[in-house]
Amino acid sequence: MMAATTIILLLCLILIGIPVGLALIGSSLVAVLVFSSELLPSVGLSIMSTSSNYILLAIPIFILAGELAIKGKLVEPLVELTRALLAPVPGGAGAATVLTCMFFAGITGSTAAEAAAVGSFGLPVLDKAGYPKAFSTAIIACASTFGILVPPSLTMILFSSITQSPVGPLFMAGMIPGLVLGLTLMVLVAFLSWRGGFGQPESFSLKRLISALISAIWVIAMPILVVVGIYSGYFTPTEVASVVVAYGLVISVVVYKAITFKDIVDVCKSTIRLSCMIYLILIGASLFAFVLTAEGVPQSLVEIVLSLNLSSLEFLILLNLMLLILGCFLDGLSKLVITLPLIYPIAQSLGIDPLHLAVLMTVNIELGVLLPPVGINLFVLSGISGLRIEVIVKALVPFYIFLSVALITMTYFPKFSTWLPAVMSHSL
Q1: pLDDT tens digits, residue range 182-191?
Q2: Is it true that the peptide bond before 398 is cis, omega within 30 degrees of 0?
Q3: How many domains does the chain have?
């Protein structure tokens, strides 16, 4: 009864517009007070446990790194480098934008931050190259979703915290899917640009390429620092996040001279605001999971699923459908923290690799941030481009198909997610 009350209250609060974090906390506390007030001390311990989780400390630090990258205009050298490299190819200007997003994903770990940063610099560049604004916006909207798949992925950090899985292998699990999706998207964008006659190829200049590379080399080092630092075992995610922040601050102030003291204050304020929002949702999710576990809901769901004799593949297909539907109504973070405590025990009972599950949930979230009516990337890029959301959604149709095919492929071939972590674990 307590769990049912919590779920009903949660849905009602979300439907009337209460922020998800407050809805999770409110519904859980009301249910505990009404049905099991003796559990209140355990509720306090649950909140303290979530708030003091060392792994989660990486989240605000990576957010700070992303905010510094945006304020320090670190995306600008990347845009120039990718254009110098790919603009001479037919459709190369669009493909260059995708490549910029792939580089920047290794800095931010957030789709919204990546969409805002690349959109601010990338849209004028594509407009100058002759791309229709709706198509340009759709390219950036889709390509910016890689921010939650490749390291440093905030989604993978949350998955690690909720399931107690090591975060290093989770980061590695997203590398191959992220690179494959990025390279395939570059080919798709180049083909659509060529077929639509968008953007005339520019003449190749070796001098321009070398100059752009020299200017961008400091920024390129940031994602390399993340990958090498974590995979080598020298740094934990939290430690490497701190190193990236220090490095980003130095190059923003000393090398590019793009940040003032006032900018640093603004960056800190923005980081605190975003971090508080995320931690509020995480605390609410921990209380929600506590209530469900106290009532034995995860165990009951495992028994129900096992009684249906579903194969692991059938379960994952149903899971994809459920997550895509939820993606129309919940933001990616809320969807993850609400569903994962229920899904993970079932996946374990069916023998599904946690790395495979993490990548599938992340790709689902990538699609979700592009789905109306609550897709965050749609709102971010609508504000930057000035286009109505329905116009962006129409231009996104081929990219919806692309991401859906990617999701199906990742579902059927778990090796995409598990191969690199297995290789790295044997080599270390």
Answers
A1: 899 989 998 8
A2: no
A3: 1
